[in-house]
Amino acid sequence: MWTDLLAALALVLVIEGMVPFANPQSLRRMLETLGQLDDRSLRIAGLVSMVCGLILLYIVR
Q: Who has greater pLDDT, 27 or 1?
């Protein structure tokens, strides 16, 4: 079980590292845009992301 969790975390790091490696300017613009959003919008985006992840995990597992 721990190996699955560590593998998942490793994949998250790899995927999150792809954008700044491939296009750092795009990442800067995206972070500036995120900085201008209100807390409610960020929470909703986080909730949608978590729900999509859970659904994908349910489908895969």
A: 27
